[in-house]
Amino acid sequence: xxxxxxxxxxxxxxxxxxxxxxxxxxxxxxxxxxxxxxxxxxxxxxxxxxxxxxxxxxxxxxxxxxxx
Length: 68
Description:
mainly alpha; 3 helices; flat
């Protein structure tokens, strides 16, 4: 499951870079859409340990914001 996740993440990065380098609005929107879909697929295919590592800072910042 790690290889498909990394492949999807690479597609997402290239789509973002492509959307930043082009001047066409439709191409930018489509590239950002591909990047968003690839990022969601990458997170869906990621191993549980990586998801846990990614979720700890998010939960930590929410707890700190609520406590302060």
